[in-house]
Amino acid sequence: MNIFIENPSCTKLKKEFEKGKWFTIGNLAVAYPYPYGFIPGTMQKDGDPLDAFLITANPSKIKRGDFLDTYVLGMVEYLEDGERDSKILAKSPSENIELNQNIKAAIKNFLLHAFDNKPGKRVEFNGFHDKAEAENEIRNTITAYNGSSTNKEK
Fold this sequence. Notes:
Strand content: 35-45%
CATH superfamily: Inorganic pyrophosphatase
Low-confidence stretches: none
Strand order of the largest sheet: 6-1-4-5-8-7-9
Structural class: alpha+beta
Mean pLDDT: 94
Number of strands: 9
Largest sheet: 7 strands, mixed
CATH class: Alpha Beta
Radius of gyration: 14 Å
Number of domains: 1
CATH topology: Inorganic Pyrophosphatase
Shape: globular
CATH architecture: Alpha-Beta Complex
Helix content: 10-25%
């Protein structure tokens, strides 16, 4: 599975890459704990590609615009303004990383507080899911992408 990195770790500046162009979305209340991007060729119900965190011991080596081969570790799910959202959790094939409590706490904290600077934004954490559920989510979003003529491929 490949991930296109839109936002490196340790930055609050959110950017998105869509149709070959970079867009600055704005500043988040907290910094990304891990590099963050999307899985090309997928589409969630909102029309956007499936997002992913790259869990790595060397986040400073990962830059905005990197396109990386990864392995699925699991998935995190939450509600943003009442809408279900999921993020795939992945790792580099060369790293021996497991989803421990510190990693989960960093991701949960980010998701719960990234929009603290946006009045009225509601976020509810739904939990972590295993690799099998993450792979099922990826398959479903690939099917959605392939069946849509109006996808927003980034």
